[in-house]
Amino acid sequence: MRTWDVRTGRLQDSFRAGDEVASLAFGSDGRTLAAGTARAVQLWDLASGQLRLTLPSRSPTTVAFSPDGRLVAIGTGGSVELWNVDLPDPAHAIRTVCEAVNRTLTPPEQSRYLHDQPAETGCPQAVR
């Protein structure tokens, strides 16, 4: 998939879905793109260009988000699959992890679990 700036005609970004894309839908947050391929629906973070989640599905032909963005409906010919995709933003998820372990992450943990996030988005120094 490629995104273009229609004013300039320049390529802004591209995503590799791995299969032919049959359907697309934008999430209500404006940050998430759902791409239906032959075997799955992939949710992409448009700001980072990172794949956020893959929903396995049998030959999805249609993809749509609920108005609040918490559900994805996938049409597969004779049926509809509903998926809860209420994904927290990365900063919220990081805070939740830090609170759960009640400490900051070590550099190896930061590298392993937050590899796509800048170091400053890690845990705050004082976790309560």
TrEMBL record:
Protein name, please?
WD40 repeat domain-containing protein
Specify where the region named Disordered lies, as residue ranges: 108-128
Q: SMART domains, per this entry? A: WD40
- What is the top-level taxon of the source organism? Bacteria
Database matches in Pfam families: WD40
Q: Which InterPro entries match?
A: WD40/YVTN_repeat-like_dom_sf, WD40_rpt
